[in-house]
């Protein structure tokens, strides 16, 4: 046996291989696991050139794999964006905005492009236009909130040219004052095209800067334990033009996140032509283990796009939907291309299934891994129809950001199964998890995992009953081995197992024992992709190879770094980098600590003591939480 390139040992490894669930060491050769076992098994395999890394008893998980994100588009813009993902107060967010306005040169914009919701702020609101204009009288500011609205200051309105004479966009609204002049609020009703189109008017980074930007975005994902993604295309992301940056990085072996990409049509009423062109010029699965074609979607035809703005009524798809969708699906089925289809509501899913079943009668879909994305209101009948056709459902944590809006419109009972993840799993349908980052939700995988496990929104609202929650191992599988069906890589990745791609992470805390409310704040201290260390922090910082600074030098990334403003721990990150419970403990104003729980009174109040007489039980142990 050839000696491995690298050995990791002295670890507590969760493999997700049911035949060998745990291990303490792995050997890797040519990017794949060649041996998994105990230190006694693995260390003797080392040769003279083998690198040996002691993981010092830390827990290890398979690398996280996002089933739906927009990394290719996001990477082109990451260095220009001020990210409010994970920021806990509007005051901090506005302080970040002001600091960025002060350092951003003309004619550049300051952009906050999704990944947050007002419910994550303790103030539970968005900034007002007056507050934004006071901070930025001259620098254009564009703030995208989910896909429901955008806030533009007066300077941005001047630059984009919206005036009294600008017509109302189809499916959207430009809010105006009593004289008909735009005030700076753009609404999706529910079509978000006005939001996309306005953002697209801003300056773009030069090519070399986009390369740097994409590398910084991948590094932030590595910091959070992401080793692979499926890119779902996106609006204003044309193939192949907007793929030049990611192709260059792939060609130069600089990708630190594996990418399987889907092709997303860009032209309403010309979707058929797009897919005829692509199926004749692009070979399904072309590429390698780092950058590879994965099929069509998430947009197949514009007439089937049911926008997910839960502040607005459910949109009814037009009568031509079935005919247009059938034309495209037949092309894909004939060419054995898998597809993914954005579908928020069961009404859209049901009509799409009519089309898929019709095509299946002529061109069997067996062996084509097609699936729906999102599926928040999917019914059991539709789940059964998907199972019969051999399809799948890719869920994302959009409800962690929009659950409050959904419950307000449809009620908490309807929100309890949005989507019914556990029922989908029990029905035998292929299902996995992701984020739908970077605009409608954050790219942080741990927020998604916490949502699957706790059923809570980022604002703290309890959405789901126990019947729709997952245990931690099942949730982890949703983010690892389950995703491989959606990328057509089953048996090749997703577990720490001989023959699998050698992707793994050392989380900063033990995922299986950390308190539930700390899961969203987890990161990775060591991230390995193909046996190569791509990120190191904490006790593994010496293994890290930092990137050059973000370009341009005024980039928000150079100060705030990423999620929860972690690069500014004494500023905006001060109130964002610890769970609310820990913040409450730190700021507890009680006269005296509890003898049992310290100042963590909430833990005692929420606990289930194994006795009926709480006062007697805690009194016997000296707990004084109930006397606080």
Description of the molecule:
Keywords: Hydrolase. One of its GO terms (molecular function) is hydrolase activity, acting on carbon-nitrogen (but not peptide) bonds. Residues 51-535 form the Amidohydrolase domain. It holds the Pfam family Amidohydro_3. The structure is a single chain. This protein is α/β, with parallel strands linked by helices and 628 residues long. It has two domains: 79-201, Roll (Diaminopimelate Epimerase, Chain A, domain 1), CATH 3.10.310; 207-492 and 499-529, Metal-dependent hydrolases (TIM Barrel, Alpha-Beta Barrel), CATH 3.20.20.140. 30% of the residues lie in helices and 18% in strands. It is built from 21 helices and 23 strands. Helix 7 (207-223) crosses helix 8 (244-251). It is globular, with a radius of gyration of 25 Å. It starts with 5 loop residues before the first strand and ends in an 8-residue tail after the last helix.
Could you list some keywords that capture this structure?
628 residues; alpha/beta; Diaminopimelate Epimerase, Chain A, domain 1; TIM Barrel; 2 domains; 21 helices; 18% strand; globular; Metal-dep_hydrolase_composite; YtcJ-like
**Shape descriptor:** globular
Integer-rounded radius of gyration: 25 Å
Instruction: Give the overall pLDDT as a whole number.
Output: 93
The level of helicity is: 25-40%
Query: What is the total tally of β strands?
Result: 23
Based on the structure given, which CATH architecture of the largest domain is correct? Answer: Alpha-Beta Barrel
CATH class of the largest domain: Alpha Beta
Adjacency order of strands in the biggest sheet: 3-2-7-21-22-23
Strand content: 15-25%
Straight-line N-to-C gap:
65 Å
Unreliable sequence segments: 602-622
CATH topology of the largest domain, which one?
Answer: TIM Barrel
Largest sheet: 6 strands, mixed
What would CATH call the homologous superfamily of the largest domain? Answer: Metal-dependent hydrolases
How many separate domains make up the residues? 2
Question: What structural class results from the helix and strand content?
Answer: alpha/beta
The tally of helices reads 21
Domain Amidohydrolase: 51-535
InterPro entries: Amidohydro_3, Metal-dep_hydrolase_composite, Metal_Hydrolase, YtcJ-like
GO molecular function, one term: hydrolase activity, acting on carbon-nitrogen (but not peptide) bonds
Keywords: Hydrolase
